[in-house]
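Continuing the batch. This is chain 6 of the set; chains 1 through 5 are on the previous pages. Same settings as before, nothing changed between runs. Recording input and output for traceability.
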Amino acid sequence: MRQAFPFVVVLLLASCAGERGHAPPPGTPEAKPIEKHEPVAESKPVTPVPTPEPQKPNLTGNKVLDEAFAWFDSLGYPSLEGRPFVRAATGGWHQNGNDPKRKDFIWGFLLTDNGTIFQVLTTELVTWTLELRRTEEEDELNSVYFRPENLKEYATGIVAAYKSVDAETRWLSRFGEKLRQRTEFFVLARACVAAGLNEAALGLYDYAQQELCKGERGKPDIPLRDCVEEDLALHDIWRATLMFESADIPRKSMLEAFERIAMLFPKSEYFKSASETAELLRSMVKEDDEHAAKKLPPLSEMTVSERVAELIFQLRDQNGHQYSQPGECDIFDEWFHDEPGKTPAHQLVAIGYPAIPQLIEVLEDNRLTRCVGFWRNFCFSHYVLRVGDCAQEIISRIAHRSFYERRSTSGAMVKDGQAAACKRAVQEWWAEFSEKGEEKMLVESVVGGGDDAPWQAERLVEAYPKSALAAIKRGVQAANKSYIRAKLIESAAKLPPEETRDFFRQQLKYGEDLNARLRAAQALYTTEPDVALDAMIAEWRACNFTGEHFEMMVRFLLRTKSAKVVHAIADGFAKRDVLQRYEVVDELCDTFFAFEEATPGTMNQQGEFSTAAEELLVACLLDTEPRRGISMSRGPFGARDPRICDYAAFALSLLWPNVYTWKQAESHLTATYQCLKLANLYRARKGLDLLPLPGPVKIEAAPAEELEPLYADFISSDETKQAAGKAALLEKGLTALSFISAKLERLEKPDRRLSELERDLSCIVREIEWDKNGGKSDEAFTMEVNKLRGRPLTYEGLRGLFLHIANHMPNGATGLLLEAERENDGTGVVLRLKLATEVIQSTNTNCWSTQVGIYADGGYLKSYAGTCADDWGTSGKTHDDWKEAAEQALNVGTYRHFIFELSLVREGGK
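Output for chain 6:
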């Protein structure tokens, strides 16, 4: 969700293009924002303001520092001499979950200010150009300004904040940054020297050197100056590589950027890459000049061969983009083009087979394009596609077949060294194609049922429909992969129905697998809906499907808008797997919105289907099982591990807003109460008996006269009495909580022991719930669980449960899913347990799958998942990794709501 702003923001790198400023000090890290609003980057001239000339650093009395700073000053970044340190509001804002919106700020050095536009160089060496914007108080989030900051306090404070947080928080605070923390400290130290703050500079430098420049195991630490060179080289080559994404940046500018990197950072690991890129750009710039000097006629006046040659030359400016991670750069992407379909790649595809010979010749062409792919955009994994890569993609699109298969999610033909092999494969195909012709080649490929058969079938149906059906029938029989058969059947659906009806009927009845039968049903539904629907309902009742086909099955069934479909789904629905139950609720929402783009309330117009769907969703209101392992967001409803009942409540309010009112609750107890109320709305309308609603949990406080003597023992100086008093107060359990809280409030100074006692009392396990959909516990494990009842929840207690499970698994169980929830009202902890009964399918054997999640007041605190070896699970070593998470959950605050999730489930081979 983004917002445009009526002011200018231009992000300029001190030597290359950049896009972010400095984040807040790591002492106040934040979770990844759900919504983030930023200014829109535009171009606008900035009135030049004189800047001071770089000066020789002030002497610090430390030769190492002075030499390092002199080297840094020679790199050409803007001088820090005489630059005021400021905090600037960018006009953007961000929001974490339901937390209040917060302004975005950057910290840095004021470079220019003409009263309207100002520039700030951040400590990450990124220059922001911002236009002042004064706003009304209620629109403060969008205001743009800068304020002076105390550099000394900031420099010392950021080190203290960095020291105070754990490694994971430090990592999150730098997530996606292009400059490492040690180099930012170095830049700050240089600024402090410029401001005469030598002591602060020395503190920054020493900490970065001693703590952030550790050598690899057994090797000496690396000098900070060398670390900074490596970091700056990465910083600059990353941004220089991103310059290729913009078709407006001249190649000469990119050449200067890479030449600068090669010249300034000869000891870095990026020197070779920068040098090679600069050499290649140098030759391309020369070719650009020579090409511009030629007086070529318009493409429309060229011969086919001349036009192909010119378009191949223009591939150096082919501008594709990548949108998914992992994924690949799509050279045919048209979002950024004013004339869709007019890029060189599109025009070469339009020319078709006559372009193939010339395209083959450039498959090994190493020249750089404007297409940048990556593994993940938050680390430097970026690669500029070459002309040869583009030629390979164009040939594949013309031929409707692939000649190169990526070896990794960030693979590319030239990058992987496969250009020569790919060229040989294309040459062999082209020779055969030239002899046999297109139709015969397509038929042979489709009949073979190989990986390219679906793509070839599309072309065969389009160009030679009379030959298509017979080839598709044979291809379906020959294919040994489910998705190939399904895609071939899909292609046949584009042929005239009178020709394909018998084929689809045959596949509907005898298809190799559900995927084939489902695609046949989809194709047949347009002409014979009852036949197709009855067959798929029978498949549903027989449960003849796996997880990968379930979503397609549900989508097909529900989007027929048939009441008998919903009745079939509802029959035995509660016994279905939770993944399947979730998918049905999810698809009911999609059926009326994503599919038809309907508006809320239109369910009332769907007749019998609407009635059946409402009845099914109301039944789901009693289903409290969570759909684990996902985070989902749909409109106002967002949840990690969403419960079926909560999603159903949201769906009802979405589809029948005039009947059902819903608001997402942080607490499972509150959410369950709300679901029951919605169920009773429906039951009252239908004349059914109402469900009992749970009343509020009440904890009767123990009389003060009983607790005072115990408290006196607890605070006495006698250690024996202290222990006895604490044990007696814990024995009183939740009835003593309010008494201890009152004592704590009246203290003038904090008391650690009393605070810990209050925490322990607030975390007493009041109730234990077993999930009825899970496996059955045996007597031994039930005894272990019951030991926690009435006692404070602790890491040791949780560890004991999982150790018991790992070593003495109840018969039929494969693991344990645990959820501990505490309300914010002093009513203790509810422990919810489910014994898993399914083995997680994996290539691993003798392993455990683990998961941790912590949420407080409805917000995310921490979550992670992983695997561990069998002996780590049975010995408890992996459980020790949970200690920090458990303590974080149990120490969020006595009267704060929290949910703490843990799971340990067996993994098995496929």
